Amino acid sequence: MATETKAPAATLRGGSFLIEDHSPADVFTPGDFTEEQRMIGETADALMENEMLPRLPEILALKYEATRELLKKAGELGLLGIEIPEEYGGMGLDKVSGCIASEAAARDGSFAVSYMGHCGIGSLPIVYFGTPEQKQKYLPKFVTGEWISSYSLSEASSASDAMNAKAKAVLSPDGKSWIINGEKMWLTNAGFADVYITFAKVDGEHFTAFIVDKGLPGVSLGAEEKKTGIKGSSTRPLILQDAVIPKENLLGEIGKGHKIAFNILNVGRFKLGAGVTGGAKLAIGQAAQYAKSRTAFGKSISDFGLIREKLAQMAILAYVSDSMVYRTAGMIDRNLEGVDLHDAAGALKRIEEYDVECSMVKVWCSEMLDYVVDETVQIFGGAGYVEDYPAERFWRDARVNRIFEGTNEINRLLVPGRLIRRAMKGELPIFQKAMGLMEELSAGPSLADAPEGFLAAEARLTAGAKKVALMCLGLAVQRFGQELEEQQEVLGLFADVAMETYALESALIRTQKRAERMGEDASRLQEAAVSCFAQDALDRIECAARRLLAAVGEGDMLRTYLAALKRFTRREAVNTVALRREIAAAVVDKAAYPLS
After folding, report:
1. Cα–Cα distance for residue pair 525/312, rounded to 1 Å
2. Average pLDDT, stretch 217-223?
3. How would DSSP label each residue in 28-90?
4. SS3 label, residue 536
């Protein structure tokens, strides 16, 4: 067995995956979980299996007390305070630990939303931006579950355009209170929350955050929303009619609410990736178990090739998703090392470094889950379309994830926008790298730096994918200049290329690291998953890039671009049918996700 790599991990720049080769030693993977992190996962899994599942009918019936009691039990186990400093009763642990707990909470979509809404966007604004007095008042009660928090950013007329909020706050004549008027929409946990983190414009101009306590004068809730999915989570509007909020409940600085809203969403995005990954693994297990038990034409449907192909593809995508989530969380944790959480600006700047990766994780993983649950319904057949079986609930619960934490459309636009901004500021030499590709094309092919060894072909494909991404972004900027931000279709196509590249490299490096630690023979199933995914990812990259290039060039110039694309994506055909059969056999044999 190969020995584990001991080289110190480097702190990687956000977005640098496009222009640098990251080594296995520098990338965090699930294989790097500490014993403490594994224990957190085991504790959370036990809570979900032994305490939450027996009460699932109550949760789905929207019996608030069931969810509150379970959250309080989670608090007793330390699961509500993973990222809250020890001085306020929390554990003061890392983002990886938070992701592990979020993944476990996905044993049910409704409870996962309630748990993550409280621990994430409901608590972290006070962790990072609260005054010492606010932290002392709220955080210890959040840790125990005595108080449950909620978060309200959206309004009916300004969902994704949060800065266009209509809610207004003015200081009372005596200067002791804020008087807020407005209505906030879609508050998770609203029906049983004690605290609402909300936003309004001071004097109608300055976007600002506030802590609103339940029961204050002028604070009320609208009726429960009749949702398609996550029916066991409470979702209600917050109504503020001349609401009297103590002056000391202002959160952060006047006019700086956007810093709270958007930075906290970055954390929510990669944590959502962890949650949907957990949901995907659960669905795979349920689909495999049903396929083994269901017979047709005299044998189990798990023996049919097209069913096995679905199970294999579901497992492959979950493996890639897992790789992306913990790579991102690991980079953030490494960048936060040594940062005092009392320094909110410093901590959030370290997290913001990976805003590109956070957006990619959110989009890619949520769309991965939609594929997995859709195929789960298909495997269940008619049974998948009725409430008596879990597939139907998985399917309905999954859909909202493409809307949560900023829609996938918004996040797709954020990926190129932030990369270009960093390039323009000189923080990432993206344009220089793109220009270098032209010299490479003129020089002709070279094998001097071709990767060798385990998954060498997939490493070459990853390098080619990066070149495609750089070429596409460089040519789009060259063609449209300042008008590029109006070319949303082009920006979205680039985002797809970048996401597939990040996904592929994440799975590749994770598997290479596993092989270094455990040996290549112990990593054959993961190797097969990466080989299959690489072929599919390059197909999608080539398709998106072809569409993008046709929008930035024409005639001979376009033919030149397409020739470069063909060169960068050139690959040998791989028998992915056989590889998927190997993965499917493992899924069926284990009746669960097999690629941990």
Report:
1. 11
2. 98
3. --GGG--HHHHHHHHHHHHIIIIIIGGGHHHHHTT-HHHHHHHHHHHHHTTTT-TTS-GGGTS
4. helix
Contact residues for 204 (Cβ-Cβ < 8 A; gap 6+): 168
The DSSP-derived string for 245-274 is EEGGGEES-TT-HHHHHHHHHHHHHHHHHH
> How many angstroms separate the Cα of 317 from the Cα of each of 323, 339, 532, 561?
10, 34, 10, 30
- All structural domains of the chain, each given as residue ranges with its CATH number in brackets, are 33-119 (1.10.540.10), 150-251 (2.40.110.10), 424-590 (1.20.140.10)
46 pLDDT above the threshold of 50: yes
CA distances from 129 to 85, 141, 146 (A): 13, 17, 21
**At 91, which amino acid appears?**
M
Per-residue pLDDT reduced to its tens digit, 130-169: 999 999 999 999 999 999 999 999 998 876 677 789 999 9
Q: What is the pLDDT of residue 4?
A: 40
* Catalytic choice (405, 458, 500, 542): 405
Residue 150 C-alpha from the chain's centroid: 20
Q: Given the DSSP bridges, would you call strands 195-202 and 149-152 parallel, antiparallel or unpaired?
A: parallel
Which position has the token pair 């799975």? 507
Known catalytic membership, residue 405: yes
Residue 596's pLDDT is 87
d(CA 307, CA 376): 10
Tell me the residue length of the chain. Answer: 596
Cα(284)–Cα(587) distance, rounded to whole angstroms? 8
Q: Place 365 in a pLDDT band, splitting at 50, 70 and 90.
A: very high
Q: Decide: 327 and 509 in contact? Cβ < 8 Å.
A: yes
**Phi, psi values for residue 347, rounded to 5°:** -65, -45
